[in-house]
Amino acid sequence: MVMIDNRQQYRKQTEQKSFTLIQAITNGLETMLEADDNVLLLGEDIGVNGGVFRATDGLLEKFGEKRVVDTPLSEAGFVGTAVGMAVNGLKPVVEIQFLGFIYPAFEQIATHVTRTRARTMGHFNLPMVIRAPYGAGVRSPEIHSDSIEAFFTHMPGIKVVCPSNAYDAKGLLITSIEDPDPVLFLEPMRLYRGERNDVPLDKYTIELGKGRYVERGDDVTVLAWGAMMPIVEKAVAEMKAKQLTCDVIDLRTLYPLDKEIIAESVQKTGRAVVVHEAQATGGVGSEVSSIINDTSFLYLKAPIERVTGFDVPVPLFSIENDYLPTSERVKRAIEKVVSF
Amino acid sequence: MKEKYPLFVVVDRTGKLVSESYQSEITEEKVQNFYYHMVRIRTFDRKSRALQRQGRIGTYVPFEGQEAAQVGSALALETEDWMFPTYRDHGATLTFGADMDRLLLYWNGRLEGCVPSYTKNIFPIAIPIATQLPNATGAAMAEAYKGTKNVSIAYFGDGATSEGDFHEGINIASVFKAPVVFFNQNNGYAISVPIEKQMNSKTIAQKAQGYGIPGIRVDGMDVFAVHLAVKEACDRARRGEGPTLIEAVTWRFGPHTTADDPTKYRDQEKTEQMREARDPITRLERLMKKYGFWNETWIKQIETEIENELNEAIERMETFQQPDPAHMFDYVFEQPTWTIQEQKEALLGRGGA
């Protein structure tokens, strides 16, 4: 059984609080700053200002400027600085203000962050996390809305994680910080202040590389992550009126993908729809399709459908909703694979 | 700007101290230590070029001409300090304590050579230009975080000053007063592009002004001047006074790499004149003769010692165990992901996919 959901267990054991996704991130950072003196935060406006989204609100006051470091506006600089810190025993958690601002740091990530363990045969490793809000749908200015996870799932040496709710966000963040290797932690800014979850105040972890069944059904497997989850859930709920039920899988980790959960579900339903807001070509959806092809080809009753953004720069916000996948498009894809 | 950032010299081209006040710096121990290391790394460098020509190692990056800069700086460090070298700084890493046979393995395409030392804090050489500057800043900030007196030193060339990471690394270090020394070797050329086409400023040292940190321009062919300047910058860093930018003005006598033909872009005659006038080892020899440190017996002895050390290292490199393709899979993550595991098994046919 691949379903990983230990919420019930935690509910019984520890004190809970109702948190939005971003509050869970703040609480996860606070938990780790308390638990490990080697953990420190670096980024633009994360100290006095508490982060442009308030992800680090109150942490400077509590932990001081040695642990919560306002850096110059210098993505390559502070990601490169984090590399030097990580090889020298610290566990930096770096905030990139928006994922679309990560481009200057691309060289540091490609040539040092992801490569140092491999090129030193494990002599140096980089226990560091790069956090970044991503995605469109909140009427942000240009470049602020990019969804470029595939650049990093393609890059060897870094894990890519993307929670869709408060409970997963804290658990996955703690696991990422404790991971001996670098993790890119993508936060769906569109869901930052959405639905609340009960979140344990204690430290807890969620294994990386494991997806989660959000819902169980018989006819179609719908796979998504991050900001696409509510859209998928709405579509699937509406399909019930047509007597169609779906397995809904929140992949949660984009590298490495959870091959088992994908195969298990698709082998049961025989139909798959993959949903992501990033551009179609070379997107993580292609990799999910490839896993289905490798593991479950003979179980398929219909070709795999992808519902994605388009091969265009994410447009300015007046038409960003036309770029983004919608519940309507997801429903059409479900109907298409069912009626094939 | 050249007046504002004058070249710091201790020993002039004739081997004479520029001021008698430096007399106390010139001890036999120091002279011999500098000379030994400079001869050692030059022998290594020449031997490596020969090994490349014979097909016994791959493309090699020579540093001949830069021995004073590399030895003078490396010997200014303390045991626990951090070094962030480029691909042309193995003279410095060797002097600081890198393993010679691992270095040869590196130039022979072996992953095992990528860790310069298992005892000294030396980061694997940076190939992408200037990327190691922010890394050095981070290691230095981590030392400050831990409350030690250790510093880090970043090596980089003149071309690196045009990269964004040069600015970002120094800027962050200056803001946080990180204990780091930015040690530039200005050897006149970034492959084929001369310094005049690399920057409009007359010196590299003057760029320090933009960061509100000291900038020192030092004769990179004068091992005493380099050593004093770097030592002083390290002391400043250890006292918590922040970073220093040092420009060591030097010259690369050889090609950019063994795959490069410098006659295409520079007048080799000028380089030969430069060697005649400024060779760092010749200059030290002139000083040794002038001040009574010339000792033929000792020189013969160290030459033999170095020759033996090198031959033994080459022997170990050439008899090293065969490369294992499994290694490309085994160190990407602490635990290989399933994709890497499957790919490894597919390639090596072990365990079954």
UniProtKB/TrEMBL annotation, chain A:
SMART domains: Transket_pyr. Residues 19-194 form the Transketolase-like pyrimidine-binding domain. One of its GO terms (molecular function) is oxidoreductase activity. The keyword Acetylation does not apply. InterPro entries: THDP-binding, Transketo_C/PFOR_II, Transketolase-like_Pyr-bd, Transketolase_C. Its cofactor is thiamine diphosphate. The keyword Repressor does not apply. Keywords: Oxidoreductase, Pyruvate, Thiamine pyrophosphate. It holds the Pfam family Transketolase_C. Signal peptide: none annotated. This is Pyruvate dehydrogenase E1 component beta subunit.
From TrEMBL, chain B:
Signal peptide: none annotated. One of its GO terms (biological process) is branched-chain amino acid catabolic process. It holds the Pfam family E1_dh. SUPFAM superfamilies: Thiamin diphosphate-binding fold (THDP-binding). One of its GO terms (molecular function) is pyruvate dehydrogenase (acetyl-transferring) activity. Residues 258-276 have a biased composition (Basic and acidic residues). Its cofactor is thiamine diphosphate. It catalyses: N(6)-[(R)-lipoyl]-L-lysyl-[protein] + pyruvate + H(+) = N(6)-[(R)-S(8)-acetyldihydrolipoyl]-L-lysyl-[protein] + CO2. Residues 38-325 form the Dehydrogenase E1 component domain. It is an enzyme of class 1 (oxidoreductase). Residues 257-276 are annotated as: Disordered. Keywords: Oxidoreductase, Pyruvate, Thiamine pyrophosphate. Its EC number is 1.2.4.1. Transmembrane segments: none annotated. Heterodimer of an alpha and a beta chain. The pyruvate dehydrogenase complex catalyzes the overall conversion of pyruvate to acetyl-CoA and CO(2). It contains multiple copies of three enzymatic components: pyruvate dehydrogenase (E1), dihydrolipoamide acetyltransferase (E2) and lipoamide dehydrogenase (E3). This is Pyruvate dehydrogenase E1 component subunit alpha. It comes from Pseudogracilibacillus auburnensis.
